[in-house]
Amino acid sequence: MALILKNAHIVDPAAQLDGVADVLIEGGMIAKVAENIEAEGAEVRDLTGKYLIPGLVDLHVHFRDPGLEYKETIETGSRAAAHGGFTDVCTMANTDPICDTGATVAYQIARGEEAGKCRIHPAGSCTKGLKGEIISEMGDMVANGAVAFTDDGRGVQDAGMMRRVMDYGKMFDKVVMSHCQDEGLVGDGQINEGAVSTRLGLLGWPAAGEEIQIGRDIAIAELTGCPLHIQHITTAAGLDMVRRAKAKGLEVTCEVTPHHLFLSEEDLDVTYDTNLKVNPPLRTKEDSAALLEGILDGTVDCIVTDHAPHAAWEKAREFELAPFGMTGLETSLALILTNLVDKGVIDYAKMVELMSIRPREILRIAPVSIAEGNVADITVFDPNAEWTVTEDIFESKAANSGFLGAQLKGRATDVYLAGVPTMVDGVVTD
Ligand SMILES: NC(=O)N[C@@H](CC(=O)O)C(=O)O
Ligand SMILES: [Zn+2]
Ligand SMILES: [Zn+2]
């Protein structure tokens, strides 16, 4: 049946839209965008006071399926995605078994379709078992729908291996995404190396441990011509390298997470809050300020959550024993709205670029626009909804958010995936 979304404020820089209009959806596609649309027999949904944008994409999530379903499943992860306003996600390969074959890629896509709450675009691993020793079956994975390659969770330690991975990435025209962590330098580092790690008596994870691999991988991207995406970038110096690579004309992109933007190592002092134990670690306030600068000058391409669900008991352990990672899908949009858009640091159009347009470009998946003839992948949010992050609001199986207790303004209310509602009025559909 046809559906008319009425009176929302549409923001889509790709379609040069910034104003109130109606959207007519027919057969999963956008049939018309205009003022005062009427259509015989169509269902009408009034969205006065809300904003309507192209569906959000998170190109860095961990859904733990197959093998680690006690933390998250593709179904619960997909529901968390819809709840946060996302239509598409790129899942990381550090499942059990590791996603290093076409069969695992196909499994994840199929489970995603069964769950029906968001589109899953799997990333395959660069090396078998994330061990860094043998290159993965990249061709097999591409044939089965892998959109990117990464050993996320670990850095690829050997430069020669990374070169081979990028040679193949170039051949398949797929982006290689890099979790930058030199294991020799980082060792058992727990939090950013500096005054706070010293004061807390925790082993340091130095900025250089990340920057060395950023520099190395940019050099290999230049050597091979493979598109390179730096994952969860956290340091001012690392960002500068990306800035210079872009100025040189290399196809190098990067992402930042809300937690690296809005939290710092100081939040660990002296809470020892294991929900704030993330890889790479929360850095200094100066680093966070540099990341924001990178957003403003275009060095940062996109916001990702690095949604990393863990069971409560795992995070309840001693700091050194707790796993790295925090969830993010259900707080990301609200954090960006509250801390950046509402404060006038960026506008809605920039947010759409960071969370919807650029992620699709980086993954080389079809662009989506609020314009006739496009798939109806749509996120609607209420910019004025005020709410508090509490453990009971999550659709995710996990509640290891670093933002518990935060008071946020703005929240996704409705999501359409190819015209099918996955969330209505803040409630994920069944
Ligand atoms: N970010 C994290 O702290 N953890 C991720 C791995 C990763 O993204 O490197 C995880 O899989 O839990
Ligand atoms: Zn990572
Ligand atoms: Zn990750």
From TrEMBL:
<feature type="binding site">
    <location>
        <position position="310"/>
    </location>
    <ligand>
        <name>substrate</name>
    </ligand>
</feature>
<protein>
    <recommendedName>
        <fullName>Dihydroorotase</fullName>
        <ecNumber>3.5.2.3</ecNumber>
    </recommendedName>
</protein>
<keyword id="KW-0862">Zinc</keyword>
<feature type="binding site">
    <location>
        <position position="232"/>
    </location>
    <ligand>
        <name>Zn(2+) 2</name>
    </ligand>
</feature>
<comment type="similarity">
    <text>Belongs to the metallo-dependent hydrolases superfamily. DHOase family. Class I DHOase subfamily.</text>
</comment>
<dbReference type="InterPro" id="IPR011059">
    <property type="entry name" value="Metal-dep_hydrolase_composite"/>
</dbReference>
<dbReference type="InterPro" id="IPR002195">
    <property type="entry name" value="Dihydroorotase_CS"/>
</dbReference>
<dbReference type="GO" id="GO:0005737">
    <property type="term" value="C:cytoplasm"/>
</dbReference>
<feature type="binding site">
    <location>
        <begin position="62"/>
        <end position="64"/>
    </location>
    <ligand>
        <name>substrate</name>
    </ligand>
</feature>
<feature type="binding site">
    <location>
        <position position="60"/>
    </location>
    <ligand>
        <name>Zn(2+) 1</name>
    </ligand>
</feature>
<feature type="binding site">
    <location>
        <position position="152"/>
    </location>
    <ligand>
        <name>Zn(2+) 2</name>
    </ligand>
</feature>
<dbReference type="InterPro" id="IPR024403">
    <property type="entry name" value="DHOase_cat"/>
</dbReference>
<feature type="binding site">
    <location>
        <position position="306"/>
    </location>
    <ligand>
        <name>Zn(2+) 1</name>
    </ligand>
</feature>
<dbReference type="GO" id="GO:0006145">
    <property type="term" value="P:purine nucleobase catabolic process"/>
</dbReference>
<keyword id="KW-0479">Metal-binding</keyword>
<dbReference type="GO" id="GO:0008270">
    <property type="term" value="F:zinc ion binding"/>
</dbReference>
<feature type="domain" description="Dihydroorotase catalytic">
    <location>
        <begin position="49"/>
        <end position="235"/>
    </location>
</feature>
<feature type="binding site">
    <location>
        <position position="62"/>
    </location>
    <ligand>
        <name>Zn(2+) 1</name>
    </ligand>
</feature>
<feature type="active site">
    <location>
        <position position="306"/>
    </location>
</feature>
<keyword id="KW-0378">Hydrolase</keyword>
<dbReference type="InterPro" id="IPR032466">
    <property type="entry name" value="Metal_Hydrolase"/>
</dbReference>
<dbReference type="GO" id="GO:0004038">
    <property type="term" value="F:allantoinase activity"/>
</dbReference>
<keyword id="KW-0665">Pyrimidine biosynthesis</keyword>
<dbReference type="GO" id="GO:0004151">
    <property type="term" value="F:dihydroorotase activity"/>
</dbReference>
<comment type="function">
    <text>Catalyzes the reversible cyclization of carbamoyl aspartate to dihydroorotate.</text>
</comment>
<feature type="binding site">
    <location>
        <begin position="324"/>
        <end position="325"/>
    </location>
    <ligand>
        <name>substrate</name>
    </ligand>
</feature>
<feature type="binding site">
    <location>
        <position position="179"/>
    </location>
    <ligand>
        <name>Zn(2+) 2</name>
    </ligand>
</feature>
<dbReference type="InterPro" id="IPR050138">
    <property type="entry name" value="DHOase/Allantoinase_Hydrolase"/>
</dbReference>
<dbReference type="InterPro" id="IPR004722">
    <property type="entry name" value="DHOase"/>
</dbReference>
<feature type="binding site">
    <location>
        <position position="152"/>
    </location>
    <ligand>
        <name>Zn(2+) 1</name>
    </ligand>
</feature>
<dbReference type="Pfam" id="PF12890">
    <property type="entry name" value="DHOase"/>
</dbReference>
<dbReference type="GO" id="GO:0044205">
    <property type="term" value="P:'de novo' UMP biosynthetic process"/>
</dbReference>
<feature type="binding site">
    <location>
        <position position="94"/>
    </location>
    <ligand>
        <name>substrate</name>
    </ligand>
</feature>
<comment type="pathway">
    <text>Pyrimidine metabolism; UMP biosynthesis via de novo pathway; (S)-dihydroorotate from bicarbonate: step 3/3.</text>
</comment>
<feature type="binding site">
    <location>
        <position position="279"/>
    </location>
    <ligand>
        <name>substrate</name>
    </ligand>
</feature>
